[in-house]
Amino acid sequence: MKSSFVIIVLITMIASGCVTRNFDSNMDLGKSHLHEENYLEAHEAFELAYKEAKTSKAKELMDLSGFLAAGMKKYDEQDFKSAQVEFNDASAYKAKSGEGKLLVSKATEMTSVSQSASIEPGEGNVESNTAEESDDPNSGSLKSSPEKQGEPVKDKPLSEHEAEKLVRAYVEMEKFPHLQIEYAREDKRGNYIFQVFEADQKSKGSGHGATWGWYGVNAETKEVFEVM
Fold first, then answer.
1. Which stretches does the entry tag as region Disordered (predicted)?
2. 99: closest CA among 136, 63, 149, 53?
3. Domain edges within the chain
4. How big is the chain by its Cα radius of gyration, in Å?
5. DSSP letter at 225?
6. 125-157 burial, b for 16+ CB within 10 Å, e for fewer?
């Protein structure tokens, strides 16, 4: 009878140890993917960890990485309004862990970026310009040629999110955990411009400190260069 009890205890201990190892392994894997901003892979790893042990931290990171993964996918598809919904959900999340707070900060940043991207410049002037041209008897000379009207609009071969990854690799930001990156603007040549700066330690990584440097990415050649 005693031997049976001992065997049961040993089996329970072994099973518990396996669960702990699987949980820790998946949590570490998820954090590694977060560091590389691979949010979908991070979400999948945290989901596996949560299945092993339903801890509040695993659920927090699983939820937040899921929001960011969905938001980044919509952003890359240029569905900016849907991306904003995902980023807003993540921004409103009451994170408690350090990793979770960084994800909330990233979501807040991407909310602003997606809002800016969803505004089409000059949209309000199209109708007024058309009306002025139709009222002007000489407006025929101002109309675009058929060749220009039928000319297809070329999409950029490189998205803003992909450009940001190139800058992160160029600066080797994984070696400097105190650094953060933020999209600044697009210059006249169509290059993406980013600011890399040191995180304000008092605000736990969510504020700006000293500027590390300004970097541009050529959307055609994918070349990263320093902006003077």
1. 112-160
2. 63
3. 11-118, 156-228
4. 25
5. E
6. eeeeeeeeeeeeeeeeeeeeeeeeeeeeeeeee
CATH code matching the domain that covers 156-228, chosen among 3.30.420.240, 3.30.420.40, 3.30.70.60, 3.10.450.170: 3.10.450.170
Helices and strands: H and E segment counts in the chain: 8, 4
Is residue 96 within 8 A of residue 118, CB to CB? The reply is: no
How far apart are the C-alpha atoms of 15 and 22, rounded to whole Å?
11
The pLDDT tens digits for 105-141 are 888 888 888 777 766 544 444 444 444 444 444 444 4
Q: What is the pLDDT at residue 28?
A: 92
| Pair 216, 192: CB distance under 8 Å | yes
Give this prediction's pTM. Answer: 0.48
CB burial of 48-75 (b: ≥16 within 10 Å; e: otherwise) equals bbbebeeeebbebbbbbbbbbbbbbbbb
- Token pair in block for residue 164: 């940001």
pLDDT digits (tens, 9 = 90+) for 26-57: 889 988 888 888 889 989 988 998 988 889 98
Q: Options 1.10.1660, 3.40.50, 1.10.3470, 1.25.40; which CATH number does 11-118 get?
A: 1.25.40
Q: Tell me how far CA of residue 225 lies from CA of 29, 172, 184, 208, in angstroms.
A: 32, 14, 15, 22
Q: How far apart (Å, rounded) are the C-alpha atoms in residues 216 and 186?
A: 9
Whether the CB-CB separation of 57 and 97 falls below 8 Å is answered with yes
Q: What single DSSP character describes residue 220?
A: T
